[in-house]
Amino acid sequence: xxxxxxxxxxxxxxxxVTLASARLPERFxxxxxxxxxxxxxxxxxxxxxxxxxxxxxxxxxxxxxxSHGRALFxxxxxxxxxxxxxxxxxWLNGGPGCSSIGYGAMEELGPLLMHKGKPELxxxxxxxxxxANLLFLESPxxxxxxxxxxxxxxxxxxxxxTARDSYTFxxxxxxxxxxxxxxxxxxxxxxxxxxxxxxxxxxxxxENKKAPKENYINLKxxxxxxxxxxxxxxxxxxxxxxWDHAVISDGVLHNIKKNCNFSxxxxxxxxxxxxxDYYDVYNIIDMYSLYTPxxxxxxxxxxxxxxxxxxxxxxxxxxxxxxxxxxxxxxxxVSYDTExxxxxxxxxxxxxxxxxxxxxxWTHCSGAIDNWGDxxxxxxxxxxxxxxxxxxxxxxxxxxxxxxPVTATRQxxxxxxxxxxxxxxxxxxxxxxxxxxxxxxxxxxxxxxxxGHQVPTFVPKQALQLxxxxxxxxxxxxTDF
Length: 481
Ligand SMILES: *[C@@H]1O[C@H](CO)[C@@H](O)[C@H](O)[C@H]1NC(C)=O
Ligand SMILES: *[C@@H]1O[C@H](CO)[C@@H](O)[C@H](O)[C@H]1NC(C)=O
Ligand SMILES: *[C@@H]1O[C@H](CO)[C@@H](O)[C@H](O)[C@H]1NC(C)=O
Ligand SMILES: *[C@@H]1O[C@H](CO)[C@@H](O)[C@H](O)[C@H]1NC(C)=O
Ligand SMILES: *[C@@H]1O[C@H](CO)[C@@H](O)[C@H](O)[C@H]1NC(C)=O
Ligand SMILES: *[C@@H]1O[C@H](CO)[C@@H](O)[C@H](O)[C@H]1NC(C)=O
Fold this sequence. Notes:
about 475 residues, alpha/beta, 11-stranded mixed sheet, two-stranded antiparallel ribbon, 15 helices, binds 2-acetamido-2-deoxy-beta-D-glucopyranose
């Protein structure tokens, strides 16, 4: 018996190869091999100062526009176990102009976090690649290592081109990782990611309807935290929250209420003056995390921007210097270490980054982008469309963030006017209340107690619990067992 089975297997194997090559046009076979070679070239052996890990990581460039020479940089971690059974999760930080690698991957939720005070990485036991294949993207061009060979592109950025290029990135990235294409796909992000994430989801939804089958992206849902969603309520909520948290005086509050109408496109001079008093406070405490210390010993040689525009409504932001002042994060000084680390040539080489000699250094938030074109005043119409499209949507909010505070997000969600399917209730992380949650018809909202703007940085355990439940489409635990 044995020899004949052997023969049969050999025959079957042989005939399927012949059939496959007969059916597939030459071009596809060539492209498959090229994609595989590109993937192998992106495999990262090990980074300087990296602890040992037992899953693969890849990093490199994906071209999104050949004629202009635009390429976006990514860093990808396979799931820690059974990657072939796990979904793919894309993480996006905001800005506009801030890096998902500097913040998301190295200071928030990636498996390799920046070590404080030395050029080393440390393993994050609450990394989100416990639950998913985890992809970080620096988007748009001009952010971090992502670039364009057409320098004029830097002057023509906005929400729309960001969504378009990110979409093209995904289509091309999945060609490089075809074995992951049929997995469920999710997007998560924070801050100005409140624009990026729903806009990219909408782009995928629209393109899926008309794109050729091989470009289909298996989008199931998205989650956004401390997200910029609506200029009117985000700003009103921000001021209310500051007063309610004893950050500003009655006088400052009343002056702003009297002089500002946040549903107007352009603010008056009186409003700008009233807002100046408000921003002054956030020169002395961290707007993004009310109750943590600020960094008092930043290195003198740092090239890090003293400002950032994380989360700011662009049109509004450009008028107020106050937006641009605060460096981010907790440990409040770790960002300086990240910046020094990513600017080392040996680190860039190991990451396959900066292969074309970008003419400025790596920073958390781009200094190369100083102009932002289109940005809708409200993302709520997009959110409504995505609810209709059957996309799973979770919104979360760290409740000690003063920039896009829980008050703002609650006002925004009320404006959405969805029916409540399960009212406000506490959820638990072990025996402690992790925050509160409410289910609407089509959207779940979760608050995260004691967390600032970058929730995974401040409460890594709760953040991991959050992403796990989101991906499994399961409510957070309502009891304390
Ligand atoms: C490349 O980018 C330019 C400028 O953004 C755009 O006009 C052009 O259509 C893009 N090309 C493709 C193939 O998308
Ligand atoms: C940008 O230009 C460099 C130098 O000519 C080239 O090596 C690189 O491939 C170009 N990038 C893209 C995305 O075309
Ligand atoms: C604020 O501005 C909006 C849009 O211009 C306007 O409809 C509204 O009446 C204004 N509110 C107040 C209180 O002036
Ligand atoms: C600043 O100086 C320190 C000590 O010399 C060095 O380790 C670090 O890489 C420098 N940082 C930058 C951004 O040049
Ligand atoms: C890219 O490399 C050049 C040196 O070739 C360096 O001067 C520049 O700061 C680097 N830029 C980034 C974004 O890493
Ligand atoms: C809310 O529920 C009511 C009663 O079932 C229904 O008539 C209404 O259309 C719902 N509203 C929304 C926004 O879904």
